[in-house]
Fold:
Amino acid sequence: MRTHRIAVIAGDGIGPEVTVGAQTIAEKAAAIEQVRLEWTAFPWGTDYFFQHGRMAPADYLDQLSQFDAILLGAVGHPKVQDHITLNGLLLPIRRKFDQFICLRPSYLYEGVPSPLVGKAPRSIDMLVFRENTEGEYANIGGRLYQGFPEESAVQTSVFTRRGCERIIRAAFEAATKRPRKKVASITKSNAQGFGMVLWDECFARVAADFPDVATESLLIDRAVMEFVRRPESFDVVVASNLFGDILTDLGAIVVGSMGLAASANIDPTRRSPSMFEPVHGSAPDIVGRGVANPLAAILSAGMMLEHLGCSTAARAVQTGVAGVLRESAPKTPDLGGTATTTAVAAAVESRI
Ligand code: NAD
Ligand code: IPM
Ligand code: MN
Structure:
């Protein structure tokens, strides 16, 4: 029996609530292919921070490097500044393991109403390729004269030709495998005349290698409008780290809920483990009530199975989730239901 070793960081807030079901379901789905998932849980996050003054032990990246994949719940706590918690755990993983592709689908499932009127099931099917290691998240900068009236801060975005081209190329390669074969690039190169102009140039250069793929370039302000006005028209979308972040919360709600938005942080070279996590955060407004939608975490675990080469298992997870959404099965309150996290996860599990 093939075994994959998975590190689990359930993390903060609703992270542990949604991760447990994702593990059970992934395990059951993997078994269809005679694959065993061996989990190692790490108690890292803000509770660890309260005890140890840091989010994880100093060698946590070395520890994680030994695994085949990482499954993460969420990071962030109302009592600690987010830049401390996120830069102490989540963001360094994406950078250190060169997970430069952040893949985030937004698909309108049958049975899920979009807040936009008149959208038919399956009519919205976007796949965002978010650059995940540089851009606005490069973490370059500093503070001067902190606490004095003349205090100042510098935060630098970093765009490299290599960084832009590789995410754009990944987007085009994915588009060639999809029926509509379209890529939309989203920047703000009218105002950000250095980094995002470099991005535009890279986009034009890579596009020339894919003559069968239709392209569109939009400015981010226009793009958010079009995500609402004509979400059906988007197929693959490629954007910088920050713009990809913002667009995927919008994409999530356009197809019904943050609780359905899955994501994968991928190092396609497979030199390092890739990480799978829902798009949503620790949701402090609903934590501990047992009503968080587990489907985003479950679908993220499905993306993990796909990455590990377990396509049949991944399909089983997808089909299980689609079945629960389509049929009169339990739904959490974000989808208009009254069911608990556990009941929804159990409903998916019973369909695997
Ligand atoms: P959030 O995604 O946690 O919540 C946004 C809204 O969506 C809230 O109303 C929440 O209740 C709802 N929601 C989110 N997930 C849901 C689910 N599974 N089921 C039902 N409803 C759900 O965003 P936020 O409030 O901006 O951030 C809260 C904390 O999480 C912050 O500390 C933030 O930095 C952190 N965060 C972490 C990650 C991550 O770990 N990947 C992602 C986003 C935000
Ligand atoms: C996400 C989150 C993170 C991001 C935050 C928590 C740093 O919002 O994964 O979408 O911006 O990447
Ligand atoms: Mn986000």
